[in-house]
């Protein structure tokens, strides 16, 4: 009786499509209920905006750099990584942060390709193959875990029914013995320990909304220890006291006047909130780094160099240089709009992954590489950039993507309610100006040329760069005005003169 939402490779794209549909006409549709991390997929835009300048953690740089090296080295294709993210089980996709999804995808694809083995990864994670001790006794209360992709890095073979996820039950008999865990037994290359198994009692009214039987009707089932978390009588009594609010659906809250049914996902989330801090979130990434270095797939020095490159992009002002030149040189602007990569190269901004000539290779006319597409604001059209599917973003030019750009609320709402999103950023676009959404995909990265601020006649390119912000190039804010610049102190900071670098995957 597993949840109907398990639909394999359609899951991620289906989730995004539903997000877009359900947000029409709403200001901020994703309430921050027990969010495990501020940059999780469901972080509401109002929360994500407060974390705009949240520093990227070192393990997140490690994850990004590892993916760059694996894709750049031909050890995995970017499409494989995206597909692996789509395969994440619904509960894991809901609670994992952006880079946790990446780490899971790298684990899946590396094992599939034989780059590393499941045994390699298990050992790096420090998993024990010893038979675990019996943790629970008669009278103990336990909570069933939610579905979790960390059980196995391929889609797990689940033998714990989904209707029990997050529910507290009671053990009424001693451990009935040891069995081979089906999650592990389903993969022939994995060896794991035998697991203690328990017969657990659940009350039917704790499971099913509108159950018509008595308060004492129960369900008994055998579950192995790796799927159980310790609970207590207080949690059990709280669960029973709130029976009327339980709702076993993947849908929304229902207001019945005197009470509101809690989403099952909210209930499940409470069960995992205490399961790990940031050290736990970084554990898989660090294990993957160790495995790939030990196997000789990547070098430690290459990983360090890639992290340093990622860290430096935001301070180089490459996008600002291009925009400032376009504002002051009509011929350069025309080149940018025709061929973004060639325009970047003219300023010394070279990256192997940005093909020139619009990405067209001769003589067959096929596309190659990731395209850098430049669009221009006019008095009649205002551009807003987004990637609804997977947060594609021109890191090589603009630096690491901000948290709000990756938040599902921004991605979903931008295409349906762009003026509402802009309002959240404090940006107003006149009603008479059309808004054009530029939605990236796996083959295109956008930047835009905003309208040049008034009062900048005679300014040099270095001076103009001071008015160009990352948010202005994305479109969520206007460039700084001369008045704003002067109020901030009016100091010009020279920007980079270009670099020779690598295309950065995102």
TrEMBL record:
GO terms for molecular function: nitrile hydratase activity; transition metal ion binding. Its EC number is 4.2.1.84. Residues 133-228 form the Nitrile hydratase beta subunit domain. Keywords: Lyase, Metal-binding. Residues 283-476 form the Nitrile hydratase alpha/Thiocyanate hydrolase gamma domain. It is an enzyme of class 4 (lyase). InterPro entries: CN_Hdrase_a/SCN_Hdrase_g_sf, CN_Hdrtase_a/SCN_Hdrlase_g, CN_hydtase_beta-like_N, CN_hydtase_beta_C, CN_hydtase_beta_dom_C, Elect_transpt_acc-like_dom_sf. Residues 51-125 form the Nitrile hydratase beta subunit-like N-terminal domain. Pfam families: NHase_alpha, NHase_beta_C, NHase_beta_N. It catalyses: an aliphatic primary amide = an aliphatic nitrile + H2O. It comes from the Eukaryota. This is nitrile hydratase. It comes from Coccomyxa viridis.
